[in-house]
Description:
The complex is a heterodimer. Helix content of chain A is about 40%, strand content about 25%. By secondary structure, chain A is an alpha/beta fold. Chain A starts with 11 loop residues before the first strand and ends with a helix. Chain B has one domain. Chain B has a two-stranded antiparallel ribbon.
Amino acid sequence: MTSLPLSTPTPALLEVSSLAKAFGGNRVLQDVSFSIGAGEIVGLLGPNGSGKSTLLNTISGFEAIDSGSVRYRQQEIGRLSAHRIVARGVARTFQLPSMPEKMSVIELAMAAATSHHGFWETLAARSGVRAAEAAAREKATRLLHELLLTHVRDLPAAALSGGQKKLLGIVCALMGDPQLLMLDEPTAGVHPNLRNDIVQALRRLNAQGMTIVIVEHDMHFIREVCSRCIVLDRGHIVASCAPQELSSNERVLQAYLGGGAQEQGNAMEAAQ
Amino acid sequence: MFDFLIFSLTIAGIYAIMALGLNLQAGYAGLLNFGHIAFAGIGAYATGILTAAGYPALVGACVGVLVAVVLGWCIARLGRQLGADYWGIATLAIAEILRTVATNEDWLTGGAQGISAIAFPLGNLPRPWGALGFLALVLALLWVLALASQRLGDGRFGRALRLMREEPKLAACMGYDLRALKSRAIMAGAATTAIAGSLYAHYMSFVGPDYMLASETFMLWTMLMIGGMGNTVGVITGVLLVQAAYCLVPFAKDSLHFGSDIAGALRIGLIGLILLLSLLWRSQGLIPEKLRKIQ
């Protein structure tokens, strides 16, 4: 068994040090430390309740951290609010995306193009605003096409299926051209054909230089996409390894299967 | 009859401007402002106080707008730690505090007696041209503000507000500063409503603490809910319907021979009935908000 280090040889884009988060008496994250290099695709794994989504929430500013630090491009972002973190180039999607009823898919995607409210520009209808709107519309149309949502562009965003909402969440995240993209279970509920499109899209984005963190339960997807996996169990990091080593890593198997992990892991591998 | 019609239309126009202000906050941004009438009161009092001190009407209106915008900013900041419903109650409390101050600070506001003899801008014109001219001014302002409101609602700003109203978490995920959005929406609504308050003070030649009664805010909410929140045409339709109900009752009183006390109760009852029917059959208003077409 070989384990990859929690730090990365490439320049670290994201560094998490001794991160802790508790909800009341429930310590969801404890002394979590790892780093992610620029250009990596990292899978964040763990059984239900291991703290994966909470980790994503703390990094993206949706949950305040109790202690520790989160550094992005060598700057502390652990105490920043969500919109300030997004402004630095970190985007994310949600596990259970909830979409607005009174906004069409294309309008929602356009809303993600810029985070500046543009009160005066909208009121004055300056030519720059019209050009920015046209550019946002064009970009939204292209991304919707790439993620096979063109046919639903004029439907209310809330009317989409669960899988389509996931894809729309990815479109919205990509509208802001992030450097770090964090996806929370991007393929859950998505049709297998679309899943392959997501794989291709993520590989393409990564080739363009985007760093991607994926929380996912689908091991096949993780193996196809990720170069490294970080495994959480009960708020602790228990492993950092290549996806191919997951089924032979005893600590990973113990986290997922409990006692007698190695035997069960061998059986699992044989079954696969 | 002609004078009454002009009066009713003028009042409807002024209330429509106030309702547009509330629509920016409640309709687009989903903010439960239950103290909205305070902004109109500030516009009216600034006009009353400054014109009584000899300043031109425009100065009174501008100061009213400025003070209302500052109050709007304070209210938005005050609510940062509160949930939406508690914030709504806080706005109601602020409006009531301001009304109490207006009732008791005689030296500034004239106390319970208010400030009277506020100059009517076109008062030197012969009847009915003065009233008609003022109606034209109100309708022109309503038209301009309705266009501005429509543009804000349909554009990038309105998109951000509507996203914040429906999915605040998603809006934050897209990088929107929700506090800044909330402040802008409240300040824009406050400015619009203060203009209406200033017009009202000029038209009635009077301002008093009763202008800031909480029931006035709920009347504006009723107009929005009947017409359709988040839709400019719907808001104006709601105002016209409620105003029509107000105007019809005096006629019914004369032809059906019932007393003034019953007429007052009937007005409220009729509006309540319209609201109830609207909620039962058109829960999103007569002209509800629609998806914006993007070509």
